[in-house]
Amino acid sequence: MNAIAKAIDCLNEWFGRLIAPLIAIITLVVVYDIAMRFFVGRPSDWAFDVTTMLFGTHFMLMAAYGLRHHAHVEVDVLKRLLSRRGQALIELLGYLLFFTPFIIMLLIYSWTFFERSWSRSESTYGIVSIPVYPVKAVLVISAVLILLQAIAIVIRTVGQLRGDEPSSEDAS
User: Fold this and answer.
1) Which DSSP symbol is given to 123?
2) Measuring CA to CA, how many Å separate 5 from each of 12, 66, 69, 148, 169?
3) pTM of the full predicted structure?
């Protein structure tokens, strides 16, 4: 089971490192749009839509990477007062009762949104019509990656409860 968790970590690490530098492209588009506003007096017709979609895409695709590196918000005021075993139990219950059902719901609804968008060839309004379904496909991909990372965390937590494995912080 530990090999599965390590494979999921490797996938999300690789994917996160692939996607992270793309923020530079988003920055270039924003700088282009600002330059158009400053020098020409009007923004470009496409830059705002593109940057909005790219920022959302980047954020969603980096979510599993952030979860893998514990860069998420966690209220641990009471949790840190517990023993390691108690912390692992709270983490396991949190992932099984709250996190995983919501991610599965995200996966189901995002697939429905993507499917509808694809069937209608949905696009933005305006002079430049940008397709929307690729961004909605990103929701599906992100939900799968986040669900996989949650599975890796649950595997590690169960191992920690059994006493087979060190804490989740040491495994990262």
Assistant:
1) B
2) 11, 16, 14, 9, 14
3) 0.84
